[in-house]
Amino acid sequence: MSVFTGWRAALRIARRDAMRAKGRSALVVAMIAIPVLGVTALDVTYRSVETSTAEKLAAQVGSADALFRDPQAGPLDQSVSGDDYSPLSEDPPPDEEIPAIDLRTTFPKGARSISIQSVPANVTTGYGVADVDIVEFRTSDAMARGKLDLVDGAFPKGTGEMVATEAFLKSAGLHVGSQITVRGPNRKYTVTGTVEQPENLTVKALYADPGAVIAPWKANAARDKKLLPPNPDDLTWLVKAGNGTGVTWSDVLAANKKGALVVSRQVVLDPPPDSEVPLIKKHGSNPAPESSDELSAALITVVAMAVLEIVLLAGPAFAVGARRSRRQLGLLGTCGGDRRHVRAVVLSGGLVLGGAGAVVGVAAGLVLTAVFQPLIEEQAQHRFGSLVLEPKELLAIAVIGMITGVLAALAPAIVAGRQSVLESLTGHRGVRRGSRVLPIVGACALAIGVAIAVLGGTTGNSTEVAAGSVVAELGLLCCIPVIVGFLGRLGRTLPLSPRMALRDAARNRGRTAPAVAAVMAAVAGSVAIATFMSSKDAQGEYDYVPMLSAQSVVLYSPDGENSKAADQLARAAVERNMNPIGKPAGISRGWAGSDCNTYYEDENACGSLELVKPTGRGHTCPLNAKGAKELALRQSDEEHRNMMHSPECVDERYTIDAFNTGGSNIVVGDASLLKTYVKLDDPAAAKALEAGTPVLLNRAFAKDGQITVKAVHQYSDKDKKNRALHPGPARTTTDRLKVYVADAKYAETPGIRVIMPEKTAQRLGLHTAPYGSVYNVAHPPTDAESQRTEAAIQQAGANVYVQSGTEPGENEDIMLLVLTLFAGVVTVGAAAITTGLSKADAEADLTTLSAVGAPPRVRRTLSGFQCLVVALTGVLLGTAAGLVPAVALRLIDLRNALEAMRQDPMESAYTPIVVPWVTIGLLAVVVPLLAGLLAALFTRSRLTLSRRAG
């Protein structure tokens, strides 16, 4: 019999065996298909999310041939893509603005064009009013397709209609058919449709036909001098060539001579040689960016993990199948078949089921990617255009899945081939002791892998981190049989079902260990990424610098010229719509000489106010003084962090001027400001303010309980009012003031160093004016609350603004949720598959259990605890394995941060390692319990007794 004839027979036997055992075959196909599905979806999503040159062009020029704009640089040379240019005149006349050109004179002859021009405006919304960009753009023109697409409704058909992006409508509480009033032209517009920019789905904008907004706004401003005129951006034009050949490179060069910058579809897709590009001949070409190996390494890692998952999950299934078919394989031996024929039958099962799983996985991956395409696009914040399928890559994924199915059947095939015909026919499995060497090798590999990963982290070698993490995980994998065997000893004092589940897992390690390893591998990857991301988020929160204190809202007037009634109405708007906690605190500005906010145009026409910082220990920041680098060399990241947040250093890196104090951060206020904004509830501080003593929040500015205030009293000749109060030449005063010093933790209060009483400011010869009111709120205002408040303020006619404090970490951790779901699905799947295999492998034991009178519920609870054992063990081991690469990678970040800090001691070196306890808790508690409950729920409690063989 030829080799091919033998394999044909083996394949036929394997196919018939797969059809007979449909349940087991479906499990194997599912185990192979799930990782293949994941890799297929990842490949298609990556290829689709990656923006192609054509898609980038569509975002710029739509369906037109080119985009023309005026950079106001005069005649110029440009790059092929239009993203770089150089004026021909290298020495333009000083202080002379090059006049704008009429871009229509630069178009090719016979070309058709439409203009694009945006203007910021204030419009009414479903909640109140909001600021938004209005773009005058004929959206109904075919040239706009690709740059702006209609989602719902219809395009504008006149100057009284608009379309809006979905993001704006959602934030404004509007819909198609709503009416919007634009402040400026004071006209009402009807929203006729919803549009989107495919390259950016988060844009908030309104679109109207040219002449619908800017022209009537200019006419209104010309009639009403109190109305500010529009401030539109420069005009750009989409151009369609009339000759049908597009805008050529010669057309681009001709437009460059007239001062236009052009992005041409034809030129970008079919660029001219470098010898014909003047910019390249003059300045040379930019080197192409070097390709990175990180993507290749990531793809190899993903494929390797998928192969590992398949082998670990499918291997036990083939082993169970081989044992269930041992009599059939024994009969094959009695008919003259040798060991290689038995191996061929088992391997053929891997080939048949691997091929089926690969096909199902690729097909399901394509279908699911198409189904979830809108959700993926929302997360990527741009449209794909179309799903990009690479046939070679998809074929390679399918082939790898099929080959992996064969590899998963390799070990069971070898074991089946070693069994004698007699053992196969009688059904005896024989007794085989577990390897004593494997756990020792695994423990050594685990220790060596952790050491390599940590060494790589401390030396900054990511390759060593990756290698060490893999070695550690493989070492832990080798230890799993011993760990599973140890579980059997834990069941001595447990009730019947959990005791039997633990002993069954320990007795059938060949089935349990690979499933635990598969769960461990999936959870390890998820925990590693989740830990790394959580640590990065914590670092970002540490580096975040708020403009205002969290949960604070400031209502302020830049000029303070509102009437008392308008101010009262504005405060009522905030109190009605933002639900502040308690009463507001008034806050005032203080300045010396003429106010620089008013008299900033003339040189030396305004005064200044400065809080002088003493020098020496406790005042000067050691990280910004002589010997700072030597000090940084001796500091750990935690020591450096504490010093950076000390009062001496907190103001050295940056200063937040939240209340328009000119950099002094001296505000005028009373005790209510302490409690509302500073969150300082100290009766002694409040009493000091009432007595005229300033409260100092940053103790580094105090020496012997006093601060030094330096004021330059310099006036503008135009400032008649304040000049009359302080006649004479400009003078500089330096005053020492006794202060109440707050605790060190208040030094980081945004925007305030000193709160000065009104009477103290007047005693120093300072001018004061109310700035606004500070409110304490339960949460940052929503879009609806802000828009309602703005509408009420405008209705009151008050020239005031609302500013709110924000908190770090407000982004949604969608990636953590996805990772948790992925690991949970694999965990539940692996545990369910193992439970199903254990049921198929232990039918005789279950029959005996029912025969001796075990209650029906024991069968359900046994299945549930079998599933729970696999899931919980795999999750706990995976968590431990996943922390190794995460910690090692953070050590690399720490090393790099310390190097940067030692070069510039004012740079932050804080590199926290944050364990995502919520993710781990979900995986360690919720997922195993869910797996156990599902297994118990879907297990039949009663079993039909069958006749025992023999």
Topology (SSEs and partners):
Layout: H1 3-20, H2 22-49, H3 53-61, E1 66-69, E2 76-78, E3 85-87, E4 112-124, E5 129-137, E6 149-153, E7 161-165, H4 166-172, E8 179-183, E9 187-196, E10 205-208, H5 214-223, E11 236-240, H6 249-257, E12 261-264, H7 265-269, H8 278-283, H9 294-324, H10 326-334, H11 339-371, H12 373-380, H13 391-418, H14 421-426, H15 437-459, H16 462-487, H17 496-507, H18 509-543, E13 552-556, H19 564-577, E14 580-591, E15 608-612, H20 628-634, H21 637-644, E16 666-669, H22 671-678, H23 683-690, E17 695-696, E18 706-713, H24 720-725, E19 731-738, E20 740-741, E21 754-756, H25 758-763, E22 767-777, H26 783-796, E23 801-804, H27 814-841, H28 843-851, H29 856-903, H30 917-937
Parallel strand pairs: 5-10, 7-9, 16-21, 17-20
Antiparallel strand pairs: 1-11, 1-12, 2-3, 4-5, 4-8, 4-11, 6-9, 7-10, 8-9, 13-22, 13-23, 14-16, 14-22, 15-18, 17-21, 18-19
Helix pairs in contact: 1-11, 2-9, 2-11, 2-13, 9-13, 9-18, 9-27, 11-13, 15-16, 15-29, 16-17, 16-18, 16-29, 17-18, 17-29, 18-27, 18-29, 19-26, 27-29, 27-30, 29-30
